[in-house]
Amino acid sequence: MNRRTVATAIVILMLVVLATWLSGCGSKPAPAPAPPPTTEVIQPVSGPPPAQPPPAPPAGAEDESGAAANAVDLIAAWAQAGAPETAPFAYTGVDGATYQAAFAADILPLFTQNNVWFEGSQACTGCHFANAENSYHEMDLSSYKGILTGADSLEEPPGVSILGESEPGKGDIDWSHSKLRERLRNNRMPPGSEFDITEANRDGPCLAVSAQGVEAALGEYDCELTAVGLIAAWVEAGAPEGGFAYGGAEMDFERDVLPFFTENNMWFQGSQACTGCHFANAENSYHEMDLSSHQGILTGADSLEEPPGVSILGESEPGKGDFDWSHSKLRERLRNNRMPPGFEFDITEGNRDGPMILAGTRK
After folding, report:
1. DSSP letter at 222?
2. Does residue 68 contact residue 356 with C-beta atoms inside 8 Å?
3. Does pTM surpass 0.85?
4. By the 8 A CB rule, do 288 and 305 touch?
5. Which of 24, 277, 296, 334 is the most buried (most CB within 10 A)?
């Protein structure tokens, strides 16, 4: 065997040894054999049993969430039951079932407690606490007697019912036309008017009038001539499409009145035109109302309903001509702040019946 053949054989042998060593290093040791199965009995651990789902409530049990109702609906049920002081009255819960409530436990707290209508809301009695001059509107919402006495209790004749009675104590309660219902549900228009506890701004901005028309002084209030006063004069003159008198000058509907419905920044800086929401007698116009024209304003709200239309100018029906400005919906919505002050404006009016209430507490 020559030297070259021997060298080759040695190299091949070394490679075989190296490969065998490497394969042994990369392998894992075989697992240990499993121990034989135990015969030990496992004893239970002492302690409470696993939690179980609660049992179903018995049939007919009262569901507290179902017994809740919107605050305004609850007050309505009390008023429509004759406004009893101690006797229970029935109301419909959110689940459609009938429940019992009482004035002291369920109604009075809605007037006397903070944070009932929304987080941060002040109790109504913060401003209306006595039949006295230093209580706003001489009104006492702290007691049953005070609520039935109503507002302006020191005037002659005394009192204005807030429950829709023809006079306080008469008993002919008309909740659907009551002042309390209106003030709890209706937002002041246009939305965004600053709340002024003195109500100095409730008739809108001051006006300068002349033969050339009117000019609003935004931010100035409590004057002899105002925006609401101008609209009142127009209605009381028969709501003409043409001219009428106000402030010793000849006014014109198209030039002087209509812009308060159709133009921005007429009531205060930043106020939106009423026609931004009420632009046609159509379903996609809020309350199916058109405030863009003389005809639309006289047609009123809910114009597609049967019977059609609700006058906003105090007529018994739209087009009747028996205008009653002092009791008109337009006057109320332009002047009256929603109570309690601070409600968030919701264009869908989803919050107009107030929060869900149970036992005088907001849920």
Report:
1. S
2. yes
3. no
4. yes
5. 334
Among 194, 190, 218, smallest CA distance to 206 is for 218
pLDDT tens digits, 32-65 = 333 433 333 333 333 333 333 333 333 333 456 7
- Give residues with Cβ within 8 angstroms of 103, minimum separation 6: 78, 83, 84, 85, 86, 89, 144
Confidence of residue 21 (pLDDT cuts 50, 70, 90): very low
How many other C-beta atoms can be found within 10 angstroms of the C-beta atom of residue 51? Answer: 6
At 213, is the secondary structure helix, strand, or coil?
strand
- The whole-angstrom separation of Cα 292 and Cα 299 is 11
In degrees, rounded to 5, the angle at the alpha carbon of residue 70 between the alpha carbons of residues 65 and 72 is: 155
What CA–CA distance (Å, rounded) separates 33 from 289?
89
Six-digit token string for 213: 């028309």
The token pair at 130 is: 């006595």
Confidence band of 301 (pLDDT split at 50, 70, 90):
very high
Distance from first CA to last CA of the chain, Å, rounded?
A: 106
Residue with tokens 């039951």: 81
